[in-house]
């Protein structure tokens, strides 16, 4: 356990302690190596946490922000830790960030490795279930984002991408078609196929795939996901 400093040991003119603390100068090399390991581990952890963890910030930027929070606390609050240690870690984090950005400018593969790729969540009004699961996005989360943009019919949507930044990019059909309602979970009973007219269009309850023909009362499997449940589509 580190021994607490006596008040007599704290002198404003003690530049050796202020700059280097109680550690030898060679410890700066260890700090450099520790920073590399911690920064890379943090970047990997954020990469596996998913895009929505970072919001509008990139993975590398989020890693730098978290690193900066850890950097400033120790040299500012502990009298036996040198300021130069914190400054070195700060410079290292910034250099890593700029180096990664420069690498990404010259290499598309490096950008994909550090930030990830965009993911297709909706294609021609149909949910891409595998992509939703891979990105840990629930249907409720996606529908909430669409409702926030004034979209209440999945048939209006040509494409929805989850960008590497964690933001949704939405592209529309010029002429919307019948599709799954984005308010379905809010009032499921109104979309029950048993209470709709026989000539009403139906969509798959799981992925939103539009039935090619009337399937009211039938146990026909969805050709897209295999679900047997169909609900009323909205126009």
TrEMBL record:
Q: Which InterPro entries match?
A: DUF421, UPF0702_alpha/beta_dom_sf
Q: Name one GO cellular component term.
A: plasma membrane
Q: Does the keyword rRNA-binding apply?
A: no
UniProtKB keywords: Cell membrane, Membrane, Transmembrane, Transmembrane helix
YetF C-terminal domain boundaries: 106-175
Q: Is Transmembrane a UniProt keyword of this protein?
A: yes
Q: Where in the cell is it found?
A: Cell membrane
The regions listed as transmembrane in this protein's record are 25-46, 58-76, 82-103
Q: Which family does it belong to?
A: Belongs to the UPF0702 family.
UniProt-listed PANTHER family: UPF0702 TRANSMEMBRANE PROTEIN YCAP
Q: What is this protein called?
A: YetF C-terminal domain-containing protein
Q: Which organism is it from?
A: Parapedobacter composti
């Amino acid at each position: 356990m580190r021994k607490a400093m006596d008040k007599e040991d704290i002198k404003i003119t003690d530049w050796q302690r202020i700059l280097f603390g109680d550690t030898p100068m060679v410890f700066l090399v260890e700090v450099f190596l520790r920073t590399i390991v911690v920064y890379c581990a943090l970047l990997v952890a954020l990469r596996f946490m998913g895009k929505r963890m970072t919001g509008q910030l990139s993975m590398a930027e989020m890693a730098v922000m978290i690193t900066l929070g850890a950097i400033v606390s120790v040299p500012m609050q502990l009298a036996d830790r040198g300021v130069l240690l914190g400054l070195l870690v700060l410079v290292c984090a910034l250099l890593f960030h700029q180096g990664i950005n420069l690498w990404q400018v010259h290499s598309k593969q490096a950008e994909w490795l550090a930030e990830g790729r965009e993911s297709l969540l909706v294609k021609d009004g149909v949910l891409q279930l595998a992509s939703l699961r891979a990105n840990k996005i629930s249907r409720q989360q996606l529908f909430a984002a669409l409702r926030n943009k004034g979209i209440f019919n999945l048939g209006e949507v040509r494409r929805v991408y989850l960008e590497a930044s964690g933001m949704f990019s939405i592209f529309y059909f010029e002429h919307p078609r019948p599709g799954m309602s984005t308010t379905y979970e809010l009032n499921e009973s109104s979309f029950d196929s048993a209470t709709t007219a026989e000539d009403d269009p139906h969509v798959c309850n799981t992925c939103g795939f539009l039935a090619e023909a009337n399937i009211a009362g039938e146990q026909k499997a969805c050709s897209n996901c295999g679900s047997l449940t169909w609900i009323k589509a909205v126009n």
